[in-house]
Amino acid sequence: MIPVSTIRLSVTAREQLITLKRHTGIRQWNVLCRWAFTTSLAELSMPPRQVHPADSNVEMTWKVFGGTHEAVYAALLVERCIADGLPVTEEILAEQFRLHLHRGIAYLVGDRSLRSIEALMQKGLHAG
């Protein structure tokens, strides 16, 4: 079960990704979104329920987001929903994916130590 077929980000998230692209040198939206998603999943708290409008021109399919590991990202989301006591339905998975993705993007852009791809890699090594 894939959480969403198409991912469309908010204008705010798009602007934050542009900043992350500039800081890290990573040019692909999907790679940055993977980092953001897993960063949010590593946080123990549930992401706050917020409305993130799909009002930007950044759009990708689930297959592009997940690449060859799309099933792993879907399984991570299902596991997280179960751990958070949420029902595993299409609606909940889609909602939780958007919430985790947007929270993760905000976390990464807000981390002043992330000014290079090396800093991002170091953060990933020390997560969890």
Describe it for me?
The chain has 128 residues and is mainly alpha-helical. The protein has a single domain (6-126), classed as DNA sulphur modification protein DndE (Arc Repressor Mutant, Orthogonal Bundle), CATH 1.10.1220. The protein has six helices and two strands; from the N terminus they run βααβαααα. A two-stranded antiparallel sheet has the order 1-2. α1 crosses α5 (90-110) and α2 packs across α5 (90-110). The model has no long low-confidence stretch (mean pLDDT 88).
Provide a brief overview of the structure.
61% of the residues lie in helices and 5% in strands. By secondary structure, it is mainly alpha-helical. The chain has one domain (6-126): Arc Repressor Mutant (Orthogonal Bundle), CATH 1.10.1220.
Outline the secondary-structure elements.
Blueprint: E1 6-8, H1 11-24, H2 29-42, E2 59-61, H3 62-66, H4 70-83, H5 90-110, H6 117-126
Overview features:
two-stranded antiparallel ribbon, mainly alpha, 6 helices, 128 residues, globular, single chain
Radius of gyration: 14 Å
Question: Which CATH class is shown?
Answer: Mainly Alpha
Shape: globular
Structural class, by secondary structure, is: mainly alpha
Average the pLDDT over all residues and give the rounded result: 88
Order of helices and strands: EHHEHHHH
Number of domains: 1
Helical fraction: 55-70%
Distance between the termini: 26 Å
Q: Strand fraction band?
A: under 5%
- For the secondary structure, the number of strands is 2
Largest beta-sheet details? 2 strands, antiparallel
Low-confidence stretches: none
Strand order of the largest sheet: 1-2
CATH architecture: Orthogonal Bundle
Instruction: Give the CATH superfamily.
Output: DNA sulphur modification protein DndE
* CATH fold field value: Arc Repressor Mutant
